[in-house]
Design goal:
about 100 residues; alpha+beta; 2 helices
């Protein structure tokens, strides 16, 4: 019966991002890569790290799990930003004001 209560889980479509916040604090981010693979990021306040996990939704088996410190996360964000800025705009996807740092 608990599985029936997880309505948000079944509403995600590929490429969608789900976040959980408490006030101004972002606690959790999840990205659905495919119908059965999701990537999750969780702020572990006690360890001052971001916990990253990639798992199979159907089997519930973790395929990858690691902790990311601030320096590594910074490097990932900078490089993803560089990749983002290399993409050409698609007129159908462009939103007014859509610009990365």
């Amino acid at each position: 019966m608990v599985r029936d209560l997880d309505v948000v889980e079944r509403q995600l479509e590929m490429g969608m991002v789900k976040t959980i916040t408490t006030g101004n604090i972002l606690n959790y981010v999840e990205l659905l890569f495919s119908p059965n693979i999701k990537s999750q990021y969780y702020f572990n306040q006690g360890k001052n790290l971001i916990q990253h996990c990639v798992k199979d939704c159907d089997l519930g088996v973790e395929g990858y799990n690691c902790n990311i410190n601030k320096r590594v996360l910074r490097d990932v964000i900078i490089n993803l930003n560089t990749l983002y800025n290399q993409l050409e705009d698609d007129p159908e996807d462009t939103v007014k004001g859509d610009k990365c740092l």
